[in-house]
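User: Hi! I'm a student and our assignment asks us to look at how structure tokens line up with a sequence. Could you show me two examples?

Assistant: Happy to help. In each example below, the sequence comes first and the structure tokens follow. Example one:
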Amino acid sequence: MGNKTSCISVRLSESDHSKIKTTAKTLQVRHSDIMRYAIKTTLTRLSAFHNPELTGPALLPTIIEHCNELNRHFDLDADKLDNIINAEVVTPGRQVARSDIELLALCGMPTEMIQQRFIQATGIKLKANEVYQFMKKYLAEKYQAA
């Protein structure tokens, strides 16, 4: 990858644009510096998605870590998540189970919904503050050997 750059156009709400201008002014940098920073930090956080070697269970840590934001911004339902996670899996037995993908699709929903789904899927009753921590642990243990 070289140093060649591209000019892009982005539609932003007035509120977001105002926040970018205010942040740039406070940090004494250009608006474009704020935009590049936001893009680079987001791409770093989501680096698993631009690594073609990572498929199936290898994507779970990133998805779990950012599931609320991903679901809120990209409306990821179970079908979309299944395609993202399992579409490129070529090794038999390395796919993430549909029931686990459906749990991930609940991210961002009220905690009570996720608690009920965990009870149905695992028989385990969780406290509201344990839901995401347990989901991470449950999926990591289930797919660690995969």
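Example two works the same way, sequence first and then tokens:
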Amino acid sequence: MSSENKITTGYNTAIPAKIMTPDLVETRVGTLEFFDGIPTRETAALVYDNLDFLRGVEAFLNGVPAASVEGLRLGAAELGAKECHQAIVFDDLMDSNPLWLTGNTDTVYCTFFLDLKKDGPTVVEIPAGAGPGTVDDAYFRFVIDMGAPGPDRGKGGKYLLLPPDYEGDVPEGYFTAKSPSWVNWVALRGFLVDGKPDAASKMWREGLRVYPLAKAANPPAMEFFNGSRSVANTIHANNFEFYEELHTVID
């Protein structure tokens, strides 16, 4: 009889060692103790603590995109942009004062947030000549491009962003996209002309319009805040506040 077929002590048949639970198991979190395959009370508590830790790591890794969008939203609010018709324009380009993860210094950014739960379907009117722009949802998932790579192909046009629960009729005359989340971040880019940002800054301030569809007949006036040389943080936390930011997104 081979060793693989020998009857295991205490049993009536051969049991492969690989499926047995040893009485002691040394791990990176400590020694795990078992009796007849059942963990001791102390071992069970240690394993549950480790599972809590692993869930925290998983939440951090999977939640970075959402927390990043929340950081951007909080940063915009610091500069005064809290409503859909309030936008930040980097009239004099970006510098080292505002904290951004991937901003560059040769793009005239225009950025703002949409709250589709509060405002319902929302219109974004893009001027002709806009560079690459995009809409991302609260989890940094792509919703739709705008400007040159978008369906308007840089010629300008009206976009209609619909909330995730929208089931009504969709009016004609818009480039329409339905977002999977209530909060959405819009990031638009303008080009330098002869190395200067003036033309792009003017394009945003005179040509961009954002308003709830319900207020299309009498939209609120746009408000612009110059992001250049501003002091604001748009980067998510790396301490426990990260989870508080993530909690806000989930709510």
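Here is something you could point out in your write-up. The two ends are 63 Å apart (CA to CA).
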